[in-house]
Design brief:
- Two copies of one chain form a homodimer.
- Chain A has helices at 16-31, 46-57, 65-88, 120-127, 154-165, 199-207, 215-223, 279-289, 320-329, 331-334, 361-371, 395-405; strands at residues 3-8, 35-40, 93-96, 103-105, 114-117, 131-135, 138-141, 147-149, 170-175, 196-198, 228-232, 240-243, 258-262, 265-274, 297-300, 308-316, 338-342, 345-351, 378-382, 385-391.
- In chain A, strands 3-6-2-1-9-11-12-10 form an eight-stranded mixed beta sheet, sandwiched between helices. Chain A has a four-stranded mixed beta sheet with strand order 5-4-7-8.
- Chain A contains twelve helices and 20 strands.
- The longest helix of chain A is centred in the N-terminal third of the chain and has 24 residues, at 65-88.
- With 422 residues, chain A is of the alpha/beta class.
- In chain A, helix 2 (46-57) runs antiparallel to helix 3 (65-88), helix 5 runs parallel beside helix 7 (215-223) and helix 11 crosses helix 12.
- Chain A has a domain at 3-176: Carbamate kinase.
- At the A-B interface, helix 1, helix 2, helix 3 and strand 3 of A face helix 1, helix 2, helix 3 and strand 3 of B.
Chain lengths: 422, 422
């Protein structure tokens, strides 16, 4: 019997009526002859409300034993309500916390990594005709049994990891968005929904700022070859298939699958770095010790006689203050001149598996941006992605002209959903 | 070092400000040279809100795996917030779910009984200078590790059970009421707060309808000789000591410690029961199979020649419909004439350890009620308690006249708290 893992996000279970709708939907999937394992997020804004509560009793809401217990309450509520709703409709359901689902992790509270999954209880429950309802986002430390959380997008990760552990036929990610688009439909009204996209390109889109799937979940799917389907809880549309290996034979791999944007990054520039071996390493060691994740890096090697260079890099807004502080604190040790930062940058990326074998893609990208009068401040590339940094206030315009230049525009305007966030 | 277990009810942790206040209070107790283990209920009305949510997705909200997971979310939230608040004030705290606290139970979801407590982790945490914060109301099944709940008043039970398991010096029960009163101050404005009361009398008061301490917790305290102190979160008043053995030497045991009332019972009368051995047993077998708890029983043995008797008993309102149905369904088997019921009864009890050695107590009780024109419908007694059934609408008046007759009235009117419920 085919096994399907279905993940429903917070907007899909935000009230009792929606939970009942999801109950019907999963029962329908089971009635079509599948074993069904359902992963749920917390209801609506529950997690944010819990963070607000914590915020009002403490100044430190970073990952800890206590924060993890607090935050996992939300998924425990939604999972038990969904199981009750399925039973109310005459179905069989059994709910599982992260612990009960056998999801063991390391002890990194707030952003634990899955160590091992033992899905025995879930598989037994499904074999007995139950729909297994699993709380997303949570696991337990294999060291001491404490509750842990998987960090942002953790419920996607739970679903994909369970699908991998149980060798599921597909992992369906349900939200209020009906698939993966060539660009954010709120910015590009003519964005097209993709019928399918390869996992490599999906990974690049996610890491370039597309919010539809969280990068850790996509990485997990890619490493374990789990096919995904991104679809809407509120329509019968098949959504977008994220395939693991090759597309259907008749399909040509598109040169550019989509345009992703990210306005959550800052740029830090370290000015006047002595142009000697090891200096860049010293700087990035300081950044790493401050606990920040760097995205793009550009080093402008000095051409003057003073042998000084500038190093610029991008990182999340939230990491910027601590990294600037850390760098300033070590300024005399390292011997650079000064540090500047810029919170008003935007990142635009084009992604496509066909870029590996096509030429002229970067020329077309830079030409379209130049024609629109948009300056490029930094560039980084991978085999199937080109990313550029622009001014933040030019990002939307940049997205539209690039979308048009690569002939991604649909004939019709896309349906724009009320809440295309998560 | 003395060990104190402190339990804070829902009204004591109903918002962030109150949680911060509780954090200060427990830190103060620790600073006075004690090890402190804190048990918390869910914030304010959280549990009722979760039940309402369940009620909107299912028609069956009785105890189940899923309901227990749902309901325990509330205590997980409050315990982690309290631990965070203690840390914010510079203290050391570690929080524990029922599972982490080692509270194993049977698998009776919704009303599990504690099987065994292994408080090792809590004791280790306290030895390291932490305040141990434990989620009340919850445990885990020793059979399969699933989350269980201890039923109404479960957080009191958690606190007393932990105090017993760790041989604590005292278990303090904090709420918005500052002690045990001779009667409900909302009904009897001149009710007096008791400085102390023996556990036997407290058990009778709780089982007779006094809401201040839940009966299961008091039973636990009595069985394991755990002294309790009932006091207010919001005042420095020492409250009421519930002592385990003997009061202070200079104290005489009061004849009557207090008056308790209960308006949550119904009376069922089975009319025309054949007056043969085994017939009463048949009737109470039917009642037991319907899952009802009986309180008082009166059998009016027939004096007529037809050898028929009437049996009346009281039970909670909520059990009345199913018991009446069950009896009607077996009417011809058992051979009784009919069943009637009455939801408009009230129960008044007087309780006091001194009643064992005093005479004239029942005469004084019945005299006071007769003088006020209040009819007595049923009577039951124990060594230290007399309970009578009256009309429901006469219960408050009955309480006042009995309170006065036993000279319990204070010189001044008692402070009546806004919410003296739980």
């Amino acid at each position: 019997m085919p096994l399907i893992v279905q993940k429903f996000g917070g907007s899909s279970v935000s009230d009792a009526e929606k939970i009942k709708h999801v109950a019907q939907r999963v029962l329908q999937t089971q009635a079509e002859g599948n074993q069904v394992c359902v992963v749920v997020s917390a209801m609506g804004d529950t997690t944010d409300e819990l963070i607000d509560l914590a915020d009002s009793v403490t100044t430190d809401v970073t990952g800890s034993r206590e924060m993890d217990i607090l935050l996992t309450a939300g998924e425990r509520i939604s999972m038990s309500l969904l199981a009750l709703a399925i039973k109310e409709l005459g179905g069989k359901a059994m709910s599982f916390t992260g612990f009960q689902a056998g999801i063991s992790t390391d002890s990194e509270h707030g952003s634990a990594r899955i160590w091992k999954i033992d899905p025995k209880r879930i598989q037994e429950a499904m074999a007995q005709g139950n729909i297994a309802v699993v709380a997303g986002f949570q696991g337990f430390s294999f060291e001491n049994g404490d509750t842990t959380t998987l960090g942002r997008g953790g419920s996607d990760t739970t679903a994909v990891a369970l699908a991998a552990a149980m060798n599921a036929d597909i992992c369906e990610i349900y939200s209020d968005v009906d698939g993966v688009y060539t660009a954010d439909p709120r910015v590009v009204p003519r964005a097209r929904k993709l019928a399918q996209i390869d996992l490599d390109s999906m990974l690049e889109l996610s890491s370039s700022g597309a919010k539809i799937l969280y990068i850790r979940a996509v990485e997990f799917a890619r490493r374990h070859a789990v096919p995904l389907r991104v679809r809407s809880t509120f329509s019968a549309d098949p959504g977008t298939l994220v395939y693991t290996s090759k597309p259907g034979e008749e399909m040509e791999e598109p040169i550019v699958s989509g345009v992703a944007t990210d306005d959550t990054q800052s740029k830090i520039t370290v000015i006047g770095v002595p142009d000697r071996p090891g200096k860049a390493a010293e700087i990035f060691q300081i950044v790493a010790e401050a606990g920040a994740n760097i995205d793009m890096i550009v080093q402008n090697v000095s051409t003057t006689e003073n042998h000084l260079s500038d190093i610029s890099f991008t990182l999340p807004h939230s990491d910027r203050p601590k990294v600037v502080d850390a760098l300033k604190g070590r300024q005399s040790d390292v011997g650079f001149a000064s540090v500047t930062y810029d919170d008003e940058i935007g990142k635009l990326s084009i992604v496509g598996a066909g870029m590996k074998t096509s030429s002229g893609v970067s020329a077309k990208l830079f030409g379209a941006l130049a024609k629109a009068g948009i300056n490029i401040e930094m560039i980084s590339t991978s085999e199937i992605r080109i990313s550029v940094i622009t001014r933040a206030d030019q990002l939307k315009e940049a997205t539209r002209v690039v979308h048009t230049a690569f002939e991604l525009d649909a004939a019709d305007t896309a349906v724009v959903y009320a809440g295309t966030g998560r």
